[in-house]
């Protein structure tokens, strides 16, 4: 693989991470500030539980994607420095 293709993949992973963060932000906009516990609020309880489960899943994926994006960026930087160093050893 060339450096250009690795950079394109890293940019795609970065955009996916940003998209996931925006999705989580839009999901949390529907979150209520109080917990429904009273009688007659059973439908709200299940909706809140579903939203909480969905938010936890998105957060887990978001953390994973953030780590992958950061690790990929560091790896690309190290690879670039190594290639630059190797090319300076052979000036032809």
Helical amount among residues, as a percent range? over 70%
H/E topology pattern? HH
Structural class: mainly alpha
How many domains? 1
| Largest sheet composition | none
Through-space gap between termini: 23 Å
Counting DSSP H or I runs of 4 or more residues, the number of helices is 2
| Number of DSSP-assigned strands | 0
Low-pLDDT stretches are: none
Beta-strand percent range = under 5%
Shape: rod-shaped
Q: Return the average pLDDT rounded to an integer.
A: 88
- Radius of gyration, in Å, reads 22 Å
Annotation keywords:
rod-shaped; mainly alpha; 2 helices; 92 residues
Describe this structure in words.
The chain has one domain. The protein has helices at residues 3-28, 42-89. Helix content is 80%, strand content 0%. The model has no long low-confidence stretch (mean pLDDT 88). It is built from 2 helices and no strands. Helix 1 (3-28) runs antiparallel to helix 2 (42-89). It is an all-alpha fold.
Write the topology of this structure.
Blueprint: H1 3-28, H2 42-89
Helix pairs in contact: 1-2
The gist of it:
With about 90 residues, the chain is mostly helical. It is about 80% helix and about 0% strand. The mean pLDDT is about 90.
